Amino acid sequence: xxxxxxxxxxxxxxxxxxxxxxxxxxxxxxxxxxxxxxxxxxxxxxxxxxxxxxxxxxxxxxxxxxxxxxxxxxxxxxxxxxxxxxxxxxxxxxxxxxxxxxxxxxxxxxxxxxxxxxxxxxxxxxxxxxxxxxxxxxxxxxxxxxxxxxxxxxxxxxxxxxxxxxxxxxxxxxxxxxxxxxxxxxxxxxxxxxxxxxxxxxxxxxxxxxxxxxxxxxxxxxxxxxxxxxxxxxxxxxxxxxxxxxxxxxxxxxxxxxxxxxxxxxxxxxxxxxxxxxxxxxxxxxxxxxxxxxxxxxxxxxxxxxxxxxxxxxxxxxxxxxxxxxxxxxxxxxxxxxxxxxxxxxxxxxxxxxxxxxxxxxxxxxxxxxxxxxxxxxxxxxxxx
Length: 385
Known about the structure:
By secondary structure, the protein is mostly helical. It has helices at residues 5-34, 40-66, 69-86, 93-121, 127-156, 158-177, 183-192, 207-224, 227-233, 239-256, 258-286, 290-317, 324-352, 355-374. It is globular.
């Protein structure tokens, strides 16, 4: 598959924005603690970030269909960069909370528009494979940024860390300025006029993919948010290795299985992915050795790498280009919703029933997503009769 320069540019934007986001996420709890605040404060800040992101998604998708992809990307990346600059000057928890809300809104608008651009640039028959390549950039940032962020914070302190976030965010913003747009699709959307109600912001044909992704992301919050705490409670000291192995499995699946996703369709990709993810959660909680946990991490990453490109492509597959923005907003809102709700629910469940119940319930959610994937999808995105 030959990659166009415009596609390489938008993939670079995805990588840089992912780096800027992950550098903050991975270090904020330690930074907050260093300022003399309770660790739980970082959880509230993450909640505000997710809520702002979730609220902004539908508006970002609608705006990039109506106004064009590039202006919305520039606005989102500039907002994230300006909010990042604030970390260099403000130490008040209330101002930090405001900065996180602004970052959440900016990041969601930027990534929604960027995903729409990536879809615009890909031929329909190569959508799954292309989305897989596009997602590799985010997976690499997930693998690299946490270690880099912790190194900068521990060695040089928060000032240099936030300066790096600002520099990366500014570079991402600069790339969006030169990104080739897809104006024709936006002209068509303008001619179609505006629908009233919720469907002015959400794409009907993307709802099934969004539902499945919400279930899987809800489940994955048990790893992305609570795995270090779970391992710490068990006296296991290699949570970082687990996350690195899972990122490697995700990248490998995206690169190696793209052709399979295109040929097999959503059932042949999402059903096995759901089975892999369910097995990974059970192996994580019941595994008793380093090898078992590494195997669980690799399986978890492979399941994520198979499911996300397939569901992202499904969300866009039956959507005309002039509505790619709404489709991307609908799909990515499911990620925000699953992560935000999952963090709250799993936190409460871990206190009341323990982490074993959290990971068993996560496996059950993957099975529910698999059952949903088993039903055929009609052209309007709903289950076919």
